[in-house]
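Budget justification aside, the reviewers requested a transparent look at the raw inputs and outputs of the sequence design task funded under Objective 1. We therefore reproduce one unedited record. The lines immediately below are the structure tokens for a 75-residue chain.
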């Protein structure tokens, strides 16, 4: 059985922001994208600028995450 736990928008923002910062994303961009992700709005309700920023930041996070994973995989 899968359980769902309630996490507030503020807590989600904090978690996303922390994870983005840990992977080297710019602080301000991380804050903006963390807010966008925490709200869980459908893509149709996001502006073109929000979509582009989110894609850019998530791609940067993914690059750093893959690099870190490959480094720590050997240990």
């Amino acid at each position: 059985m899968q359980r769902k736990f309630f996490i507030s928008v503020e807590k989600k923002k904090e978690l996303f922001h922390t994870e983005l910062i840990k992977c080297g994303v710019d602080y301000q961009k991380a804050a903006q994208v963390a807010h966008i992700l925490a709200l869980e709005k459908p893509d149709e309700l996001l502006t073109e600028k929000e979509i582009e920023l989110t894609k850019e930041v998530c791609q940067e996070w993914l690059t750093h995450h893959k690099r870190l994973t490959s480094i720590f995989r050997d240990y």
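Residues 36 and 50 are 8 Å apart (CA to CA). The chain has a mean pLDDT of 91. Computational costs for records of this kind are itemized in the attached budget.
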